[in-house]
Amino acid sequence: MGVHIILTGQACRQYEANKSIPNIITNTKRTLARHKFTRIDIAIDDEHDRVIVFDKFLKYSEDGNISSLWYKYSLLMEKRISDTENLGRTLYFGSKKSKLFMRVYDKKLEQIKKLKVNQEQKEELLKAQPEWTRMELVFREERANMAADYIEMQGQIGILIRGVLNQYIRFLEPNPTSKNQQKRRWDTARWWEEIIDDVSKIQLKQKKADRRIEDMQDWVVKQISPTLATILEATQGDMGWLVNVIVGGSNRLKNKHKQAIQQYMTEQKK
Fold it and tell me: Which InterPro entries match (predicted)?
């Protein structure tokens, strides 16, 4: 049992009107000694398709002008059966089941789909409204916790998303006159450089804990088990004192302790 908090995009915007988004993470960590972020989505919107353009992502991907640590990309097209009209389209880079993946989708189509309008009104909206593409990184499980740690320490959400993108994926401009056909040597597409904006690569890795949970258990058994037994025998088995010690200790956990907990939980799932 515990506290489960879900913040929608609208809730984040309302919170951000008074306080910063990193403040949510900091307050959560300070309020809840034992906490875990199960998922964090970070998006960049381009409401006029000035730089982030869905069709450009799709073309470069289908032409093979892409280099990535992700194994695959997939295209999800949503169409109405009666007339095959486009209702939505999304590009996924990486598996949707993985702990880190990117999606790029047509936000304009998504917004119009939500409106209760007839076909004629819908066509007018499609012509009148500007193009709108959203690029989104999805962090899950331990990657979400690593992202939360980075945001708390650095306070730079934009730097995080650009740095991770720079680490994981690159859209390329092939040089047909070059003899070197290795993609890693191709120039980065100018539009992608504009998105990344010279941000250094960020590699979210879980630092191996200096002391494992098993080491701590051994230390307790070898070093303080006689002391604990003495106190419990003297207090006739009253566990209240020990419970208070544990509760107090949970409020003093440092990063090294949290890393050990996260590492242990990850290993238990394997």
Answer: REP-like_C
Residues 117 and 169 in one domain: yes
Same domain, 225 and 184: no
Q: Is residue 25 part of a domain?
A: no
Q: Is 210 helix (H, G, I), strand (E, B) or coil?
A: coil
Distance CA 188, CA 67 (A): 10
What whole-number distance in Å separates Cα of residue 168 and Cα of residue 265?
Answer: 26
Number of separate domains in the chain: 2
| Domain ranges, residue 160 | 36-196
- Tokens for 72? 């695959």
pLDDT in tens, 168-190: 999 998 876 665 567 777 889 99
- pTM of the full predicted structure? 0.69
Instruction: Report yes or no: 200 and 166 within 8 Å, Cβ to Cβ.
Output: yes
Amino acid at 177: T
Locate the DSSP E strands across the chain.
Answer: 39-46, 66-68, 73-79, 86-93, 100-106, 133-140, 169-173, 187-188
